[in-house]
Amino acid sequence: MPAVQETIDQVRQIDVDQYKYGFETLIEMDVAPKGLNEEIIKLISAKKGEPQWMLDWRLEAFERWKTMESPDWARVDYPPIDFQDIHYYAAPKSMSGPASLDEVDPEILRTYEKLGIPLREQEILAGVVKPQNVDEGEDEEGRLTAPNSSRVAVDAVFDSVSVATTFKKELEKAGVIFMPISEAIREHPELVKKYLGSVVPVSDNFFATMNSAVFTDGSFVYVPPGVRCPMELSTYFRINERNTGQFERTLIIADKGSYVSYLEGCTAPQRDENQLHAAVVELVALDDAEIKYSTVQNWYPGDKEGKGGIYNFVTKRGDCRGANSRISWTQVETGSAITWKYPSCILRGDNSRGEFYSIAVSNGRQQIDSGTKMIHLGKNTTSRIISKGISAGQSNNTYRGQVSANRKAANARNFTQCDSLLIGNDCGAHTVPYIEAKNATAQFEHEATTSKISDDQLFYCMQRGIPEEEAIALIVNGFVKDVIQQLPMEFAVEAQKLIGISLEGSVG
Amino acid sequence: MLEIKNLHARVAEEGTEILKGVDLTVQDGEVAAIMGPNGSGKSTLSYILSGRDDYEVTEGDILYNGESILEMDPAERAASGVFLAFQYPLEIPGVATMTFLKTAMNAQRKARGEAELMTPEFIRRVKASAAELKIDMEMLKRPLNVGFSGGEKKRAEILQMALLEPKLCVMDETDSGLDIDALKIVADGVNALRSAERSFLVITHYQRLLDYIVPDTVHVLYKGRIIKSGTKDLALQLENEGYAQIIGEAA
C-alpha cells in the first residue's frame, strides 16, 4: 500500500515533533491594533469597502456579543481567552484586492506552493488541460488512486484576506459565482443580504456572533438553478500573522436542482502562543439541490507538552431548505489544540437528506469535542452519521451528537455509528449522544463501539515484516475506511497520509 | 538453518518459566515436527522464535543461519525469512487482504534493500499462489481474516507464507479447526513449498497432520524440554501409545 509507505517516508523526513506546515511567511503586513471594539469593526468594514447595511449588521452583532458568555459545556479545558489581546485584521501590505495573480506578493504564492497549491500553475492550465483518461476509482486492492490531473478551483485566504481565486472565468461561463465574500458583498448584495445569517443567526452562539461582528474574508458560492458545478471548489485557509485570529465566513447557496462539491483545507505556522480561529460556514440547499462539503483541518496542534496551537471554535450548519435537497459534511480533523465544532444539518424540506462523515484524530495533548446535529423538521427526512474517533497520546476525543425529530417530521430516519479507537493507555474517548423524537413514526438508530489496537494485531503485522509504525497506520486507515471513501479522490489520498503523520510517535 | 541452544524463557510480565533448556537443530530443507501435550510450551516456542516481546529469554540462544536473532524485533526476523503461521490468525478490519499482502511483501523487500514490487507483478504472483490453494480472488478483496471461516483463515496463512517466500516456516497447530478436505488443501500447499533451502517447524498436537505433511524428524516437547527425538515413526508410536509412555521413559 504505497499510501502508507509514503506516509512513513514522509514522517521520516520531518522531525518527530515537527509540524510540516509550521513555517512562517515573512512579508510586510498591514495589521489593525489589538482589541475588539466598534472602531476596529468600522476599520474592517472600511478596509473591505463595505456598504452601510453590512457595517450595521456587524455592529448589531457586536452589541449582542457583548452580552454573551463563552460556552462551557464542551469537554475541553483551556485558560480564559483575552479577546482584547488579539488582532482582528491582518493583511499582506502589498495588496488591496489583486486584479490578477500577477499582483499577488510572490512570497504568498511561494507559501501556497509549499502547501501544495500551485495557484499560478492552475491559472495557466485553466482551460488548456482537459482531464485526460482520468484513472479514478479503486485499484485492484481497493486502494484509492488519485487522478493524474484534476482541476480544482481554489480560493486562497491568507490571514484576513482572500489572495487569489482561480478558474474564475470558466466558472462564470457556467454561471457559478465563486469569489471572496468581501467581493460578493459589493457585487452581489442581493444574494448576500438574502442568505447571510439565514442559517446561523447572528445571535446563534458566542463565537458565531463574534464572527458576525468581525469576519474578514472567506468564500462565497452561488450555483444557479439546474447547474452542476463543473469542478470542485476549494478554499485554503492560512493563518500567518502572530497574535491574529482568523474569522472567515463562508456562504454557499445551491439553487434548485444544482450540485456543488466544496473542499476546505487549513494550516498555520508553529507558534508558542495559542491562536484563535472562529469561523462560520452556512450552506443553503434549495429544492433538489445537493452540496458536498469536505474539510481537511490541519491547524497547528501545539507541541508535545500542549504549548501553542490553534483554538478552533467553528460553527458550521447546512440548511436543506428545499424538498429533496441533500447536504453532506465530510471532515478529517487532525490539527488544532482544541476543536469545538458540530457541522449540522437542518432537514427542513420534505424528503431531504443530511450526512455527516467524520474522522477525528487526537494525539499529544489535543482536545476534541466534535460531532453533529441532525434536526429533522420535514416529512420523510433521513440522516446518516458515521463518526470515527482515534485517540492517542494524552489526548481527549469526544463525539457529541444531537438527533431530533420535530412533531411534524413524520417518518424521520437516522442512523448513527460512532466508533472510537484508542492507541496507548493515557488517552480518552467519549461519546455523548442526544436523541429526541417528538414524532412517533421517527426511527433513530445509534451504534457505538470502542476498540483498541491490540498487541496481538500489532505482533501479527510485524511478524509479516511490517514495522510497528507502518502497522499502526495500516490498522488505523482500515478503521477509517468508510469515511475516507466519502472524500473527493485527491483529498482521500492526502487524508490517509495526514492521519499517519498525526499519529507519529503515538506508541513508544 | 536453525539451532536452539539450552533455551530458557519466561513470561515477561509475571516470570513463569515456560522453556527450561530446549535444544534443537533443524537442517536446511528439513521438516521437523514438534509434538507434545497441552501446556508443554509448543506455542511459546513459536512466539519466541518469531520475537514476541511478551516472553523473555533468560538463558541460551537461538542461532538462525549461524547468527543469534535474539536482538532482532519481529519485523526484522520476518524480513530475514522467519515466518509464523498462526494458530489463531488475527482480523484486521477495513484492510483488504490484497492491501495487507502488498504492504507486507514490500516492507520485507524494503528491509532487504530490494525494489518494491510493481502492481502487475504482484497481482500475477497472488493469482498463481491463490489458485494453488483454491482461494477465490474475491475473498482477497475482503478485509484480512474478517468473517473468514476457519479453513479460509488457515489457507490465507499459507498464501502469505507462499508469497513471502520465507526460509524458516514455523507452523503453530495449523491443523486445528480444519476438516479433512481443508487439511488436504493446506498440506498440499505446504508440500509444494518444500525445498532444499527451506525448513519447516511443524507444531502439532495430533499425528493426523503428519500423514499429509510427512516430517523428517519428530521431537517431543514436555515441560519446556525436548524429551525425545526420532523419525516419523515416533509420531505413530505417540498416536498408538499416547504421551504417558514416552513421558514415563524420560522421567
TrEMBL record, chain A:
Protein family (similarity comment): Belongs to the iron-sulfur cluster assembly SufBD family.
Name of the protein: Fe-S cluster assembly protein SufB
All residue ranges annotated as the SUF system FeS cluster assembly SufBD core domain in the record: 237-479
Tree of life domain: Bacteria
Pfam families reported for this sequence: SUFBD_core, SufBD_N
Residue stretches making up the SUF system FeS cluster assembly SufBD N-terminal domain: 164-228
Automatic annotation (TrEMBL), chain B:
Domain ABC transporter: 2-248
Alphabetized CDD domains for the sequence: ABC_FeS_Assembly
Presence of the UniProt keyword ATP-binding in the record: yes
Keyword line: ATP-binding, Nucleotide-binding
Alphabetized SMART domains for the sequence: AAA
Spans traversing the lipid bilayer: none
Domain of life: Bacteria
NCBIfam families: sufC
Similarity comment text for this entry: Belongs to the ABC transporter superfamily. Ycf16 family.
PANTHER family xref list: ABC TRANSPORTER I FAMILY MEMBER 6, CHLOROPLASTIC (PTHR43204)
Full protein name: Fe-S cluster assembly ATPase SufC
Organism expressing this protein natively: Jiella mangrovi
